[in-house]
């Protein structure tokens, strides 16, 4: 099935957490450097649509400015709520959503949030991941993935390290059909 490219750009602690247990991401500040965005702007400029979960959405709402301005945003949630920044809310099958996005002109989708990332991965809907490993151990929190139900093979494509201690890893997801052939 043709579909838009679906990508992940996410940060994790060295021990695999994307947020504290209460959802806070304050620990990301250990790598903040004036003028350094670790390639996020280039990535963000390449996407036309963002699909995120409710918890990621609520975190974004707390920022001083809406971080997804100028992009189509779809929030996966079980409850409807009023749109505050032009975002839309979706409840339903993810494959149907991705098909609909393609039909509506989406070419490159940014998938954000641990639960959503896990759901997209489990369904074979992620094409590539950029994972920034932050030099901190949290010990507990929200894992980068949960309940995938199967192994998902990745093909390493690139790594970069930065003076802040952040290490960025890039992978392509090996499609299940390619796994069977190898």
Polypeptide structure, described:
The structure is a single chain. This protein has 182 residues and is of the alpha/beta class. It has a single domain, classed as Dihydrofolate Reductase, subunit A (3-Layer(aba) Sandwich), CATH 3.40.430.10. The chain is 22% helix and 30% strand. It has 5 helices and 10 strands; from the N terminus they run ββαβαββαβαββββα. The strands form 2 sheets. The protein has an 8-stranded mixed β-sheet, sandwiched between helices. Helix 2 links the parallel strand 3 and strand 4. The two termini are 22 Å apart.
Compact overview of the structure:
Helix content is 22%, strand content 30%. It is an alpha/beta fold.
């Amino acid at each position: 099935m043709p579909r838009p490219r679906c990508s992940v750009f996410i940060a994790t602690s060295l021990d695999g957490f994307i947020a504290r247990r209460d959802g806070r991401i304050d620990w990301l500040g250990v790598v903040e450097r004036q003028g350094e965005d670790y390639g996020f702007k280039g990535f963000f400029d390449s996407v036309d649509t963002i699909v995120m979960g409710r918890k990621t959405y609520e975190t974004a709402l707390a920022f001083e400015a809406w971080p997804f301005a100028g992009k189509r945003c779809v929030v996966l949630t079980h409850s409807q709520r009023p749109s505050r920044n032009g975002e839309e809310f979706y409840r339903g099958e993810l494959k149907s959503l991705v098909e609909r996005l393609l039909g509506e002109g989406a070419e490159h989708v940014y998938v954000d949030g641990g639960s959503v990332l896990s759901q997209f991965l489990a369904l074979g809907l992620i094409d590539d991941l950029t994972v920034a490993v932050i030099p901190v151990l949290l010990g507990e929190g929200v894992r980068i993935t949960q309940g995938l139900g199967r192994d998902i093979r990745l093909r390493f494509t690139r790594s970069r390290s930065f003076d802040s201690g952040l290490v960025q890893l890039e992978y392509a997801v090996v499609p299940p059909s390619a796994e069977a052939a190898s």
